[in-house]
Amino acid sequence: MKILVTGGLGFIGSHTVVELQNKGYQVVIIDNLSNASLEVLKGIVAITGKSPIFEKLDLKNKSAVQAFFKAHQDIQGVIHFAASKAVGESVDNPLMYYENNINTLVYVLQELIKLKVSNFIFSSSCTVYGQADTMPIAETAPIKPAESPYGNTKQIGEEIIKDTCKVNAQLNSIALRYFNPIGAHQSAKIGELPIGVPQNLIPYITQTAIGKREQLSVFGDDYPTSDGTCVRDYIHVVDLAKAHVIALQRLLESKNATNFEVFNLGTGKGSTVLEVIKAFEKVSNTKLNYKIVDRRPGDVISAYADTTKANTVLGWKAQSTLEQAMLSAWKWQKVIN
Predict the structure, then answer these.
(1) What are residue 171's DSSP bridge partners?
(2) 80, 148, 330 from 188: Cα distances, Å
(3) Out of 25, 150, 178, 204, which one is annotated catalytic?
(4) Beta pairing, strands 271-272 & 231-232
(5) CA 300, CA 180: separation in Å to the nearest integer?
(6) Considering only CA atoms, which of 3, 124, 6, 17 is closest in space to residue 75?
(7) d(Cα 90, Cα 96) in Å, to the nearest integer?
(8) Is 150 annotated in the active site?
């Protein structure tokens, strides 16, 4: 069964490709390599012993997307990761985010609805909730005005898919709203590989610890939380990858209740930035050089998941602890440094 993974050489995409291949799926990866490396492909092959089909393609190129789907009409499902994903960068460069995250989604969906049966997993985010009124956040929580252009692209993306599903009964879709993916594959053959300065906390922590970055900035210590730093739900990327395979199987086996479903993916536990730093220092036995700086625009105070729906309906639950995830990220950093 042939499955397309867009952005399949990215952080979450590559781990999902591994889990798909481990389950026997034939995987086709599309990636434009704007934030990924071909080295990741070697890592996937080293772990699974199988080579996915890889096409270097920019999904912003509509005619290239059309040509791809014409050549691969036997695709049974799509897991769509391809997108820019940094909150701060989206605030600075909103038009790049709207073009890259919205246009590409539209072009893929336009081709998918031409197929007789199409199954689509969308890489969404807890940013769609904005600053939620209550914790933990359930799927029924109201969608607040987005705090950043990145968050807005995920809200708009979900609306586009939902509207498309309403008028295309053959399109079955699940939006997975994930919280904060961290860690690396236990083999340390693939992991988070940011190009340039990391936009996410964990690679910045590991790069600081290994000496690649001079100092980690902690954005604000005056939030209304236990230690004044932001709270997030940090989920191991392998747990997250496995959830994508389970969601895809749900669609392939026609077990979905409606043709557009939404699930939160997280651990159900919130951790402050300082708690994450302490967890890292413990597992790595390394003291981290960090300083408190001003708040960053676009950051919400607190976000952690109510995972009841994913646990009961999908039958999926996160397995790894924060410390296990931090240790895997540190092992990966030492391999790539």
Answers:
(1) 118
(2) 24, 32, 9
(3) 150
(4) antiparallel
(5) 13
(6) 3
(7) 8
(8) yes
